[in-house]
Amino acid sequence: MSTRRLGEMTTVEAAAAVVDSPVVLLPAGAFEQHGPGLPLATDLIRAEAVCDRVAEALGGTAVVGPSLPVGVSPHHLAFAGTISLTTTTFATLVREYVDGLYRHGWRRICVVTGHGGNDATLATVAQDLLAARPDLQFAWSPLTTLAADVVAAAGPPEVSGHSGQAETAQMLAVAPHLVHTDRLAAGTTRLAELDAFGALARRRGGPRLTAPYDRLSGNGVLGDPRRADPEHGEAIVAAIVDRITDFVTAWLRA
Amino acid sequence: MSTRRLGEMTTVEAAAAVVDSPVVLLPAGAFEQHGPGLPLATDLIRAEAVCDRVAEALGGTAVVGPSLPVGVSPHHLAFAGTISLTTTTFATLVREYVDGLYRHGWRRICVVTGHGGNDATLATVAQDLLAARPDLQFAWSPLTTLAADVVAAAGPPEVSGHSGQAETAQMLAVAPHLVHTDRLAAGTTRLAELDAFGALARRRGGPRLTAPYDRLSGNGVLGDPRRADPEHGEAIVAAIVDRITDFVTAWLRA
Amino acid sequence: MSTRRLGEMTTVEAAAAVVDSPVVLLPAGAFEQHGPGLPLATDLIRAEAVCDRVAEALGGTAVVGPSLPVGVSPHHLAFAGTISLTTTTFATLVREYVDGLYRHGWRRICVVTGHGGNDATLATVAQDLLAARPDLQFAWSPLTTLAADVVAAAGPPEVSGHSGQAETAQMLAVAPHLVHTDRLAAGTTRLAELDAFGALARRRGGPRLTAPYDRLSGNGVLGDPRRADPEHGEAIVAAIVDRITDFVTAWLRA
Amino acid sequence: MSTRRLGEMTTVEAAAAVVDSPVVLLPAGAFEQHGPGLPLATDLIRAEAVCDRVAEALGGTAVVGPSLPVGVSPHHLAFAGTISLTTTTFATLVREYVDGLYRHGWRRICVVTGHGGNDATLATVAQDLLAARPDLQFAWSPLTTLAADVVAAAGPPEVSGHSGQAETAQMLAVAPHLVHTDRLAAGTTRLAELDAFGALARRRGGPRLTAPYDRLSGNGVLGDPRRADPEHGEAIVAAIVDRITDFVTAWLRA
Amino acid sequence: MSTRRLGEMTTVEAAAAVVDSPVVLLPAGAFEQHGPGLPLATDLIRAEAVCDRVAEALGGTAVVGPSLPVGVSPHHLAFAGTISLTTTTFATLVREYVDGLYRHGWRRICVVTGHGGNDATLATVAQDLLAARPDLQFAWSPLTTLAADVVAAAGPPEVSGHSGQAETAQMLAVAPHLVHTDRLAAGTTRLAELDAFGALARRRGGPRLTAPYDRLSGNGVLGDPRRADPEHGEAIVAAIVDRITDFVTAWLRA
Amino acid sequence: MSTRRLGEMTTVEAAAAVVDSPVVLLPAGAFEQHGPGLPLATDLIRAEAVCDRVAEALGGTAVVGPSLPVGVSPHHLAFAGTISLTTTTFATLVREYVDGLYRHGWRRICVVTGHGGNDATLATVAQDLLAARPDLQFAWSPLTTLAADVVAAAGPPEVSGHSGQAETAQMLAVAPHLVHTDRLAAGTTRLAELDAFGALARRRGGPRLTAPYDRLSGNGVLGDPRRADPEHGEAIVAAIVDRITDFVTAWLRA
């Protein structure tokens, strides 16, 4: 069976893919701290894994384009190793990937981001493309929030999220060799652990306040990754893959 | 009683406000179609009204800075009169307003946007400011979604939103002289009226697809503005004002 | 009688205005110190008042588009409350307003600026548009200098200008409730009060040197606003309105 | 006697000039049509000649820095050979020349422009530098308008200016070998020759409208260059040199 | 033994690496046609393989940072699948990777590029960093040209290079599963096959002319990849690794 | 005989040149230290001289366009008088010169740079133009390296280059009045004089490391300019002129 990754195809295969595989998935990650137990590339690893599975599930109507290994992570810069693009640069990068694919004939492109910090920028790219390339359809997708129900089923603590149970579980499902289970440590798990500023930044339903993660958690973790297990991770990943696959299937018929 | 609008203050009063009013609210709008019954400036009008009320409710701890009359509206460009900034320009504009206020000593700035199309760009500004001005606290707030419960209480149709009941009601509450009640007309109210692409763009919980409004509604309206009444509008506005006021109050203590 | 403000029109009315009102006036202000007696928004207030009157005088052949509330004011940044855009951002903003109007069919656009600090940037926009949009006619107009004869008739002091007699008089004519007549105070009125650098910056007919206003005046005022009266202000405004109206009338025939 | 041109100095001499010659003059030109008798580089040639004379007259307190051979000339692009920078690029170029000189210690820099089309951009650079480099003094100077009295004394026709009598006379004074006196031809000399649009663009005292030169003159000339003579040109150049020299002398004392 | 890839490290390990591994290697590729037998990602694959080996050879004094999967490839855009960044975007991307690493304390960063089309942009980044970050040492390295002697030993045809024998051999050494040996086909191998423009673009020692690859080769290949064998590829890779390792060793002592 | 310099032509002559002289040569220099004996403008002076001679040799098929007097020289900024453009600005400048010439009909443009620090940026411009203006042919040429054989024939010392024998000789050939032969002084001539970092930066065949010149030479000179003589300079210049002339001749036939 042939690859679904465009980067592994020859130009001759790519020319055929423009016709046979009208959707391109672009995996986007972050290069940022994920606490003491997960690697810096966690978000890209999950995004690539999801893209590969979605392309597989679609049976050839989509290909996986080049990755975006670094994303928008200014809130993690206090933690060693984090690299962050400005939102302008990340947007430009997505735009130029899109421009290249557009030139060869693709008109449906979906960025799959493993990192929530990329969401806002991707939404701005979608807006600018409406005016700049009206005949292109640009979509983007987060990962974990697509499986909110599966995540919630595990009964996460009051504060949970970055590098917590759900994200660690996904890594145990897709890249277990990169998880240091012996070093996993709980981060902030209760609102009462946050100072007033941090609590305000975590409030839902009101004005938005963005906090750097060093204000939210001493080790960069929200929630308790020690509770993660690979079966739950597999369930989360499977749900994400299903929902993106459903979306693309509907998209191809629209 | 003195004004809460910085633009109506002298420079001498502004110097005092830096000390006495540590929060600046910046009203952001859009210059875009709002169907056959509402004016192009609807979003700015609502944002300014909310800012004035919040500043009043806070009793002097916040001032209202200069407005951003034009926002990010590429999805409405097919409708006459719509002007849209690129996301880069809107972001730069917010940044330079912030830079000016920062220079005079303000460290808490909140953009209040009447237009959801500005949300993504405001979120990117918040991210870039984390790295560029770590000692600044930048917040932003939407309007209608803060009062989602009050909006839902009116039992909106299956499809509802832009220029629909809730937005029209707010205008009846804050600027009734600019609402042409005789021309209000229902737009798209049921998912079945949308084509497959439009339906996909309105789906919640999956990948995001941004659709131009001329794909979603013939007259630019989602929902039925004829059902709007000023009392409901007043309830929505009051809820928004309360929730932003609460946020700022907590912020000042954080 | 219907409004001349595009922001108060619906999209349906805007579509008609493209045909019936081929000229768009864009009011531009500044958000800057105007001494101890005038508000920060003085320049926008005057520009909007002039635009409204011009549109009225033209009887429907022009509409007033969205405002530019903040302009280019680096020379006033030492005074509290001043916000300044870089010239690049102000130019981009004007360009994107113009692009939107152009898209809907307008080909004659005139920015009316209450702030002289915007003049140079507006002139650069005009130049760049010559190459970028050859079928667009872009004009811009200052305010007070159009009525230089009326201003001179009042016998201003040797040094006069920003926040002085003529500007204060205009505010007494168009927004008297925002003028603190009890706090008006003379600023620099004689060349001899300036240091050598300030005097050089005020010299006419030679090389141009731009001075920050804190080098020119302790309270930010040039001239004596206490001499202002509303009748003179009305005469200045009327002259400005007449001359812009004459220009637009000729333009529509050109 | 040593050179006043920085480009002809060694780095050792430049180090001494930072101390001994605190003013740098930067000649700016245009690369644009000057009618059938004058060369494309006319404006740079005049600016360099003036700078050399000013530096000479100042006796060593100023040096002449690198030239800016191409300026802002979109209004001449319909005529062969014209090259125009966008206003943004011209501004950036000036800024980077200034940044380099600043780095070595210079704090007084004056651009001398032979081309009026550069004026607006130079004024924006001056504004942006106020905020960006508060301890730098940046000036700029036109040429011909400094000698308006000398120009007027020759009794120019109703329409006069670009490539007309005064400019041609200057070229006869400073670079007569580049003037094709046999090909000089009158351009537009009376307002009645202009169409309504052109006439409006030439109106003084009202709103500003920028016209491309092909709307103003068939051969690119305003006025009658055949009336030019080198003595008048010398008088104009001498007046310009005197006035810039006076300005710099005062500047050095300020 | 622990990983040398920063992306596989936790933030805690990254903090240690700043101290223990003062050099960061950044692999840069291209996403471009490599003829009928090699994949689009060929250049990144080779660059990553070399970086891994160099880091291994250095025994812990260097780590491998995030990849740059897409490079500057406008000359290949006529071939399906090629994506190219503008030189400005590629430069900005490198700069922001560098900025992030710098922030955490790294001062020696080397981009290892598998794609010669990135060389010029990397050289401009190096220049701009001299002025912007004088205490940073930025290096960059090509691959194949470091082993020019090993390449030459195989007696390549008159025209050879992109996707030819040496590049294919390297892929056979580092990623044989991605080489379609059955589809490898000779491209242009003799100067006589080029048209006059193509021949001029390939001339050495004179002015540089950049040709799109569709002017140089029908299948995008220069040389004959069928002659490639894995042993030669291994010799080339080993030479490259040795020479970069030697360089870094000397750098750490400088 | 008429001039080959476009700047000395009228617009009427330029219109003819588009047809008769299909190649435009653009001389690029630097404004940077050249040791104690050569002027800051050395690179521009040599580039202009070469362009004039090439245009002459071509007998009218090429014209010389406007100069680029300042280039990319961050490595020389520690020496007084050096002005450096960022690579982005230099690239934009070249692009806008090219855009202007393109507009008038020229399709073959060659930048001739006297300064090696401009090479990388020119190569990036060439790449971006491939995508942006596919019907334009853009070339660029260095000077001294075209005559490497003639330079080598003089037996230069182990370290040689900037402001050394070959460059000084060229200046003695084309602008002897600007060479201070009495002040010429040897700079670094042996690798052993360099520290480990400088030696690494001068290594050939491995990774590239860019060093500021104050790390390489106390007086900014590499090599020994005292050995220069005008005959050798003339031979170098003649070789450069011949090779560019040959290239253009071939280009015109391609």
TrEMBL record, chains A, B, C, D, E, F:
Record-listed E.C. numbers: 3.5.2.10
Q: Which UniProt keywords apply?
A: Hydrolase, Metal-binding, Zinc
Required co-factor(s) are:
Zn(2+)
Query: What GO biological process terms does the UniProt entry carry, in alphabetical order?
Result: riboflavin biosynthetic process
Q: Name one GO molecular function term.
A: metal ion binding
Stored InterPro entries:
Creatininase-like_sf, Creatininase/forma_Hydrolase
Signal sequence interval, chain numbering: none
Superkingdom of source: Bacteria
Q: Which family does it belong to?
A: Belongs to the creatininase superfamily.
Name listed for the protein in its UniProt record:
Creatinine amidohydrolase
Organism for this UniProt entry = Pseudonocardia alni
